[in-house]
Predict the structure.
Amino acid sequence: MNPRQLSRPEVVDFARNAIKALEDGKITGLSPAEAAELAATLSAATDKLATSDQKVVATRSAYREATEDASVDEADVIGILTGLKFRMRGTGAGPDEYKAAGFHPPAGTKRVDPETPGNLSATGYANGVNRLKYLGNNPAGAVIYTVQARTSLTTEWAIIGSTHKQSFKHEPVSPGQFYQYRVRADATNGRTSDWSNETVVYPPE
């Protein structure tokens, strides 16, 4: 077997097998002193390689996790920026305002009368995520859906996010905690729909 054709973990195993052969006296062409010296040298180098390879594996794993986290965070920021631009269009923002925020001014604004979203439902999961689904009842891309939530029937509603999709993921939340939700459609021209039906996860006992 040619160790040059092996992966790093396989090279480590290969080397440790050779070390054992040296230590057990199975390589008879060497004196005991030579075999011991080679075994010690090879053992030190192999341990160093194993440690280095573990660092590579850990770094790759950390990179993958960091990349996944960054992708989620990027999507959150883009979603919020999209909501900001929609709201700027709704308030009749001028070109200088768009430029100040870094946006290209929109080419024009269509008249859209948003339809109220319907069939809102929510499901809670033990991993701290509540997933919402609803019927948008609007042409794709014509509106942005604003999602509100509250943690009791007497507290104020609060905006928790916005999306173009007909679904929304609320996280992190406390599993088992009461949450009530509602959704509204907002058009780029400032018009809004009524709020959808309200739904809850973990109803109060």
